[in-house]
Write a structure and sequence with these properties.
Number of domains: 2
Order of helices and strands: HEEEEEEEEEEEEEEEEE
Largest sheet: 5 strands, mixed
Distance between the termini: 105 Å
CATH architecture of the largest domain: Sandwich
CATH superfamily of the largest domain: Immunoglobulins
Radius of gyration: 33 Å
Shape: elongated
Number of helices: 1
CATH topology of the largest domain: Immunoglobulin-like
């Protein structure tokens, strides 16, 4: 076995040079080993949670895409699961470079926790399809226990239904009736159960009622974000 001997200051310098070269070559080959043949897509973050937002707030997030492979990464399509979500993306990403996928969503008409997905299609054989998610809790300015009333019984039955309306903003909530189309069939009343914060709507069918009916109650509020409340009412009393 050959033995290298180094003498003096120059020998120390040469020894350090060989050690540095060995380390550099080792790191080079490790890096080459990590680089997969072909395209290699890496998306470290695959879900983003916006937390609590107001209904109607547009949300947008950009995901970073890295090509850790040795050839061109192609993103062939990004397909959101619903029409409320749109996408923009870099269709080609060179080896060792990064690109982006941006998802945008309109939260109008949603309430509570939402989770919307988009499918990302690539030419990476190990990751031909990847799911990305946008999450949020959509808060409406006015919370209702339900948005409709249904009566179902036999002629002569008297049934009662209630709806609770609660303010979700700091401003005191004021409500008044704009239009009610079922005066001949259903008795309607409204009571304030917490001043400026909560109301109870009570509905009771008239005892002589029979047959099928439908109508609506339209309420006006002082909230510009939700100036009206629409409640649909239907009933079926058949013996």
């Amino acid at each position: 076995m050959a033995v290298l001997r180094f003498y003096g200051q120059s020998g120390v310098v040469i020894f350090r040079f060989f050690i540095s070269l060995l380390i550099a070559l080792t790191l080079f080959f490790i890096d080459e080993a990590r680089c997969k043949e072909g395209a290699d897509v890496i998306i470290a973050e695959r879900s983003f949670d916006f937390g609590a937002i107001k209904e109607g707030t547009p949300i947008e997030h950009t995901f970073t895409v890295v090509n850790n492979g040795s050839s061109l990464l192609k993103i062939t399509a990004v397909k959101p699961d619903c029409g409320c979500t749109s996408s923009e993306f870099d269709s080609e990403i060179s080896p060792g470079r990064e690109g982006h996928i941006t998802l945008k969503m309109d939260t109008s008409g949603y309430k509570g926790r939402i989770k919307k997905a988009a499918r990302v299609f690539t030419n990476d054989p190990d990751n031909e399809m990847i799911l990305l998610y946008l999450e949020a809790v959509v808060k409406q300015p006015i919370l209702m226990s339900k948005e409709y009333v249904v009566f179902k019984g036999a002629p002569g039955d008297v049934l009662t239904e209630s709806i609770i309306i609660e303010a979700q903003e700091n401003t005191p909530l004021e409500i008044e009736t704009l239009d009610y189309t079922l005066d001949d069939n259903v008795i309607f009343s409204m009571e304030e159960i917490e001043r400026g914060r909560a109301y109870r709507l009570n509905f009771s069918n008239k005892p002589e009622l029979s047959g099928v009916f439908s109508g609506q109650l339209r309420l006006k509020t002082n909230y510009p974000e939700q100036p009206e409340i629409l409640i649909k009412i239907r009933g079926r009393f058949i013996g």
